[in-house]
Write a structure and sequence with these properties.
mainly alpha
Length: 134
Amino acid sequence: MAAEYGLNLGTAYQIYDDCLDVLGSEAAAGKTLGADLANGKMTLPVLVVRERATPEDLQRLRHWLANWQPSFLAGVMELMAKYDAFNECRGCVQQYLDAGQQALMRLPASTGRSGLAALTEFLAEQTDALGVIY
């Protein structure tokens, strides 16, 4: 049960971090925005756009990813908005957090369980706050 919780929380955090790389502020992210894109990482927001994009938008996205420059970030963000990628990702984060919370509730009540529940809630709040700037 603890491992199941950890797997779900870790997956939720990774998706949140993928969104933070594009939608966050550099101060909040603690890294240069677009760093995952610059490194060629196929993050969930990018995969959502790839799945939903028109052929023209998909061609633009592929060009940007293959020839990454920081100036392309605004265009990628525009496509993410157009194809509602962040809301899709936020829903995925919440699904993983819910699954983690269910696993957590099967553990005996303790201060440790309470702390992990608070961590889950904190990540949910951070994910919601990230959506404010989207």
